[in-house]
Amino acid sequence: MRFDKIEFSAAYGTSKQLPPSGVPEIVFSGRSNVGKSSLINKVFNRKNLARVSSMPGKTITVNFFKGDGVVFADLPGYGYAKREQSEKKRWADLMEGYFQSGRNIALVIQLIDMRHAPSADDMVMLDFLRQANIPFVIALTKCDKLNKTETEKRREEIKSELADYSDITMIEFSSVKGIGVEEVKAEIVSAVADV
User: pLDDT per residue over 99-137, tens digit each?
Assistant: First the structure.
C-alpha cells in the first residue's frame, strides 16, 4: 500500500450525509486533543493532511480521505467538556450513525494519551469496539513527553488500567520523534489485506 497516495475526500456533520461504504475503511478514533491529526499527518508523511488545532474539539465532522484502495475516516474527538449539549448530542448521533451503517471497517486505531490513565470515555469506546466485534489497535500517543522513568511507570500502570485489553496490540507513538509510525503502517497494511 502506498502511504503517499492519499487525499482529502469529504467531511460530513450528520449521519444522514454519510456515503455508503465500499472499500475497506481504516478509522482513527480518540478523545479531543489526543493527537489524532498529528498521528494522521505523520503516518502519511504530510504536514497538513489533517488539520492540527491548538483548540481541542475542533474536528466536529467525520473526515474521509481516499487512499490506495482504502478509505481513511477521522472521527471527531470525544470528551471535550466545553461543547454545548446540542453539539454533544449531534456528536453521539453521528458516531452511532457511523458505526451502525454497515460500514466495511477493517481496523480502528484507537488513540489514548500515554501520559494519563484512560478516561471514562476512552473505556466506553474500547468496550464498544470489543462488544461490536470491530478490530482495533491502541496507539499510545505523546510517548515522547515522558522520560525513561515515567515511561516505565506508565507501562506498568497501563497493564492494569487496560488489563481487559491485554490481547490488543498497543503501540507507543510519537508524532514528534516518529516512534511507532512503522508499526501503525504495518497494522493498516495487515488489516486491509485481511478484508
Answer: 988 899 999 999 999 999 999 989 999 999 999 999 999
The set of cell numbers assigned to 13 is 456533520
Burial bucket for residue 156 (CB in 10 Å: 0-12, 13-18, 19+): exposed
Question: Which residue, among 111, 29, 38, has the nearest Cα to 75 in the 3D structure?
Answer: 29
- Tell me which amino acid residue 56 is: P
Is residue 75 within 8 A of residue 95, CB to CB? The reply is: yes
Quote the crossing angle between the two packed helices 181-194 and 36-43, to the nearest 10°.
80
Is the overall model pTM greater than 0.70, yes or no? Answer: yes
Helix (H, G, I), strand (E, B) or coil at 161: helix
Q: Going from the N-terminus, what domains does the chain have, and what CATH number goes with each? A: 7-194 (3.40.50.300)
pLDDT in tens, 28-85: 999 988 999 899 999 998 888 876 554 444 557 899 999 988 999 999 888 765 566 7
Which tens digits make up the pLDDT trace of 159-168? Answer: 999 999 999 9
Cell of 131: 462488544
Cell numbers describing residue 101: 451503517
What secondary structure does DSSP assign to 110-153, as a single string? EEEETTSPPPHHHHHHHHHHHHTT--EEEEEE-GGGS-HHHHHH
